[in-house]
Amino acid sequence: MEHEPQQGYPSSDTAPDSLLQRVTIRHLREEDLPGLEWDGEFIHFRRLYREIYESTRRGNAIMWVAFLDGVGVIGQLFVQLNSARHELANGESRAYIYGFRIRQNYRRMGLGTRIMAAAERELAQRGFKWVTLNVSRENEEAIRLYRRCGYRIVAREAGRWSYIDHLGKRREVHEPSWRMEKKLDPSG
Ligand SMILES: CC(C)(COP(=O)(O)OP(=O)(O)OC[C@H]1O[C@@H](n2cnc3c(N)ncnc32)[C@H](O)[C@@H]1OP(=O)(O)O)[C@@H](O)C(=O)NCCC(=O)NCCS
C-alpha cells in the first residue's frame, strides 16, 4: 500500500502552483530556529544554529529560509561573510554558502535553485564578487545543481570539522569534499 503523505507534506512528484505560491524565500527570524530542527532530525545542530543566528546579528552571517505558509520552514541556506580562511570568505569580496537543505518532500520543485538565487542576488548587491561552498564528493545531486547554477570545482577539501551538539557533546564530522566557487554577476 502506498504510504500516505503527512498533512502538508505532498509527494515530491506533485508541485501544484498553489503550493509554490505559498512559499516565501526570506531571511530567518528568531522564531524560525526550532523549525530548522525538522521534527528532531537536526536537533544535534541546535547550538550551532543559535550561534549562526547570533552571528547574523553581528553582521557576519545571513540565514535564508524557504517558508511554507501553514507548514513552516521547508528549506534553508546559510551564508558566512567572514572566515579565518580567506579563500572561503573574507568579509568583502568572497562569501561562503553552507547548511543548504530542502525538506525531502519539497525537493525537485525548483526551491533549492530559488533560495540559492536569492542569496546570490543579495551578495552581489552587497558588493561580493565570489561565492564559495564545499560539497561532499558523493553528493551528485547537489553537485549537479551547483554546476547548473554556474559553480565549478576549484579544490579538494578534507571536510573535517566539529561542533557541540544539543547535549554539550563534541561531534566530529569527516566528509571529503570539493570546494566549488562562482563569480557573481555584479548586476545582481
Ligand atoms: C541539494 C538540494 C538542496 C536541492 O534542492 P531542490 O529544491 O531539490 O533543488 P531544485 O528543485 O532547484 O533542483 C533539483 C532538480 O529538480 C529539477 N526541478 C526543478 N524544478 C522542477 C519541477 N518543477 N519539476 C521537476 N523537476 C524540477 C531541477 O532541474 C533539478 O534537476 P537535476 O538534479 O536533474 O539538475 C536538495 O536535494 C537537498 O536538500 N539535499 C540534501 C541536503 C544536501 O545535500 N544539501 C547540499 C549540501 S552541499
| Distance separating the two termini | 48 Å
Give me the strand/helix succession: HEHEEEHEHEEEE
Return residue spans where pLDDT drops below 50 for at least 5 consecutive residues: 1-9
Number of helices: 4
The CATH class is identified as Alpha Beta
- Determine the strand fraction and express it as a percent band: 25-35%
Q: Which oligomeric form is depicted? A: single chain
Structural class: alpha+beta
Approximate shape: globular
Amount of helix: 10-25%
Number of domains: 1
User: What is the CATH homologous superfamily assignment?
Assistant: Gcn5-related N-acetyltransferase (GNAT)
Q: Biggest sheet: strands side by side, in what order?
A: 1-2-3-4-5-9-6
Distinct ligand kinds = coenzyme A
Q: What is the CATH T-level topology?
A: Aminopeptidase
Query: Mean of residue pLDDT?
Result: 92
Largest sheet descriptor: 7 strands, mixed
Task: Provide the gyration radius in Å.
Answer: 17 Å
CATH architecture: 3-Layer(aba) Sandwich
